[in-house]
């Protein structure tokens, strides 16, 4: 069993490699990082952003498992925080909604992703978008400043999800909202997958049970927590064979266990913010 620090180091290493490539290159190299085809193919989860206002092709690395901005109820003038902002894909889509009067802050713990996001930002010339280096369990942000917090297939990579949701709650304004696309589970994953570090980085073995994920948001203090989008994710046999025998794969298929891509929303109640 890896420690939290070991998991973070693994995630940073893989995503630093992903940051060096385009989405097409990531897809061609199986998992997004050259030479690591023993990892989940992120294209299994990715959504098509090309019709979204504000879409920037150079910021889309195909790493998401939903489009949280579609359900986040972002308005013009809002302050939006994007957790695990990567190369800026969701941040730039959010900026198209908040407009000149709003603000978007992206946070990512991988230096290479921050560098890539800022290169994209320099080309666009926006003065109301910024990217900060930091971890979700200890965000480099003051409390009660976000109207909306979004995240796309990132919270499941955080070892301490309780701390992550506590930070989401802390930075939200009273009546602020979160809208998170993520991977959750129904039923049990085989031990071969749960114990694979590569599958953690691929958003699978680090995922919570669906009920536990929702409970983590409620325990942090959020109200009206619900799933607004859900779909099953099929893990192809050619990925699973790196971890399991054909017999074990068949058992997994017949078990009724599922990997799900969900989008979850919640609202912070009226509170006194310092």
Written description of the protein model:
By secondary structure, the protein is of the alpha/beta class. It has one domain: Vaccinia Virus protein VP39 (Rossmann fold), CATH 3.40.50.150. The protein is built from ten helices and seven strands. A seven-stranded mixed sheet has the order 3-2-1-4-5-7-6. Helix 4 links the parallel strand 2 and strand 3. It is globular and about 55 Å long. The N and C termini lie far apart (39 Å). About 5% of the residues have low confidence.
Short recap of the structure:
By secondary structure, this protein is of the alpha/beta class. It has helices spanning 4-19, 23-28, 89-98, 111-124, 161-171, 191-194, 197-201, 210-220, 237-240, 246-254; strands at 79-83, 103-108, 129-133, 146-152, 172-186, 223-233, 258-267.
């Amino acid at each position: 069993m890896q420690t939290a620090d070991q998991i973070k180091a693994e995630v940073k290493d893989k995503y630093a490699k992903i940051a060096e490539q385009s989405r097409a290159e990531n897809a061609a190299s199986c998992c997004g990082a050259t030479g690591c085809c023993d990892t989940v193919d992120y294209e299994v989860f990715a959504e098509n952003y090309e019709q979204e206002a504000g879409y920037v092709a150079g910021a889309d690395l195909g790493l998401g498992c939903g489009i949280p901005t579609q359900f986040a109820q972002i308005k013009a003038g809002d302050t939006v925080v994007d957790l695990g902002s990567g190369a800026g894909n969701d941040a730039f889509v959010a900026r198209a909604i908040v407009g000149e009067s709003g603000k978007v802050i992206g946070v990512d713990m991988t230096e290479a992703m921050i560098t890539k996001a800022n290169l994209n930002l320099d080309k666009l010339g926006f003065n109301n978008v910024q990217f900060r280096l930091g971890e979700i369990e200890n965000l480099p942000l003051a409390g009660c400043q976000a109207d909306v917090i979004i995240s796309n297939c990132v919270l499941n990579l955080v070892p301490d999800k309780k701390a992550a949701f506590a930070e989401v709650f802390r930075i939200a304004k009273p009546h602020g909202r979160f809208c998170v696309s993520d991977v959750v589970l129904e039923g049990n994953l085989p031990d071969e997958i749960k114990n694979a570090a590569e599958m953690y980085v691929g958003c699978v073995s680090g995922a919570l049970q669906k009920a536990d994920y929702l409970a983590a948001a409620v325990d942090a203090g959020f109200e009206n927590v619900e799933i607004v989008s859900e779909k099953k994710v099929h893990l192809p046999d050619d990925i699973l064979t790196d971890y399991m025998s054909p017999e074990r794969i068949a058992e997994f298929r017949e078990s009724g266990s599922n990997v799900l891509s969900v989008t979850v929303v919640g609202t912070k109640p009226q509170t006194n913010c310092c």
